C-alpha cells in the first residue's frame, strides 16, 4: 500500500506532514514557528478551511483527489523549501488574509499585530487616543500592502498612501487592495521611500523597511532565500533604510503626527546612534523591535 491508501483523514495527513517536515529539517518563521503549525496551515488553506483551528476537521475523511493534492503540497514544501504561504498563495495577519507570491515578502510584521490589537489606542498605550481623527497615513515599503490595508481598517477616516520600490511587489499590492475594495482609500505609489509623496504630510507614517545585514542574508536558510532580497538587505548593520526614514520623516508629518517603524534586532545600535526618545512597542512574539516616535522629537 502507498501513503495515499494509508492516509485517509486530515489527522493522518497532518501527522505525516509533521513527521516529514521534522525529518527534513525545514526552517519556519513565515507565519508559523514549528512543523505542526506549518503543516496545519498548509493543509487547511489548501482545503479552503478556516486556518485558525485544525481540531474541528481532524477526523474528516478526505477524497482521493484531495489526498493526492495534499501529498504533493507536503512534498513540494520539502523539495522546494519555499514557505507554505508561497505554495498556497496566501498569508494571514491576525485573521486577515493577503495574496502572496515570490514577488513580495511573506507578511509577518509586528506592526500588523500592534495595529490589530489596538495597542496604540486609548485602551492600550494611548498614543492614538482617537483613531477616527487620523486623516492621512503613509505606509513605506508596503510590499503586499498588508499594513496599508490594516491601517485603513483601523483608522476609518484615513486616506492611506502606500509606497513600494519594487514594481513586481506593487502588482501583488494592487490585487490585495482590490480584494478589500479599498481602491478609493489606499493609493499605491512606486518609488524610493518619501520621493513619490514629496511635499505631502501625514498624521502617521508606518514603516517596515528592510533591516537585515548582507552577511545575515547570505546565511539565510532556503525558506528566507525564496523571498526578494531587496526586502531584507539594509547595509552593514541593517539600519541604512531606517536611518533615511528617521532623517526625512519629520518633514512629512503633520504637527502632532508620529512615526512607527520596525527595525528587527537593531534597537541597541539605533539607541547608540541617536539620542531620541523612542517608545518601544512589544508584541506577543517580539520585544523592542518596533519603535514609536512623535514628529516633534524627530531630527530636522
Automatic annotation (TrEMBL):
Q: Which UniProt keywords apply?
A: Methyltransferase, Ribonucleoprotein, Ribosomal protein, S-adenosyl-L-methionine, Transferase
Entry keyword Ion transport: no
EC number per UniProt: 2.1.1.298
Q: Does the keyword Glycoprotein apply?
A: no
**GO BP term (any one):** methylation
Q: Name one cellular component (GO) term.
A: ribosome
The molecular function terms in GO held by this entry are: methyltransferase activity
| Record NCBIfam families | hemK_fam, L3_gln_methyl
Give the matching PANTHER family.
50S RIBOSOMAL PROTEIN L3 GLUTAMINE METHYLTRANSFERASE, RIBOSOMAL PROTEIN UL3 GLUTAMINE METHYLTRANSFERASE
What's this protein's name? 50S ribosomal protein L3 N(5)-glutamine methyltransferase
Gene symbol here is prmB
Amino acid at each position: 500500500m502507498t501513503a495515499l491508501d494509508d492516509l485517509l483523514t486530515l489527522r493522518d495527513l497532518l501527522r505525516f506532514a509533521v513527521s516529514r517536515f521534522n525529518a527534513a529539517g525545514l526552517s519556519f518563521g513565515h507565519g508559523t514557528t514549528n512543523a505542526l503549525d506549518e503543516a496545519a496551515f498548509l493543509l487547511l488553506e489548501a482545503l479552503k478551511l478556516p486556518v485558525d483551528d485544525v481540531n474541528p476537521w481532524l477526523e474528516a475523511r478526505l477524497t482521493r483527489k484531495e489526498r493526492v493534492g495534499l501529498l504533493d503540497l507536503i512534498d513540494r514544501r520539502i523539495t522546494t523549501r519555499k514557505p507554505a504561504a508561497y505554495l498556497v498563495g496566501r498569508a494571514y495577519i491576525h485573521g486577515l488574509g493577503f495574496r502572496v507570491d515570490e514577488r513580495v515578502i511573506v507578511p509577518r510584521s509586528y506592526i500588523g499585530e500592534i495595529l490589530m490589537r489596538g495597542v496604540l489606542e486609548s485602551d492600550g498605550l494611548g498614543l492614538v487616543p482617537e483613531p477616527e481623527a487620523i486623516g492621512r497615513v503613509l505606509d513605506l515599503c508596503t510590499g503586499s500592502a498588508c499594513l496599508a490595508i490594516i491601517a485603513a481598517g483601523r483608522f476609518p477616516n484615513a486616506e492611506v498612501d502606500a509606497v513600494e520600490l519594487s514594481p513586481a511587489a506593487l502588482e501583488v499590492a494592487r490585487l490585495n487592495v482590490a480584494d478589500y475594495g479599498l481602491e478609493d482609500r489606499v493609493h499605491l505609489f512606486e518609488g524610493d521611500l518619501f520621493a513619490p509623496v514629496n511635499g505631502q504630510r501625514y498624521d502617521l507614517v508606518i514603516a517596515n523597511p528592510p533591516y537585515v545585514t548582507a552577511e545575515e542574508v547570505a546565511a539565510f536558510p532556503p525558506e528566507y532565500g525564496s523571498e526578494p532580497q531587496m526586502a531584507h538587505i539594509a547595509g552593514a548593520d541593517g539600519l541604512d533604510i531606517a536611518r533615511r526614514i528617521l532623517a526625512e520623516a519629520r518633514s512629512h508629518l503633520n504637527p502632532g503626527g508620529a512615526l512607527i517603524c520596525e527595525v528587527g534586532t537593531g534597537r541597541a545600535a539605533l539607541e547608540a546612534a541617536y539620542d531620541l526618545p523612542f517608545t518601544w512597542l512589544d508584541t506577543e512574539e517580539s520585544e523592542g523591535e518596533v519603535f514609536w516616535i512623535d514628529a516633534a522629537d524627530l531630527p530636522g
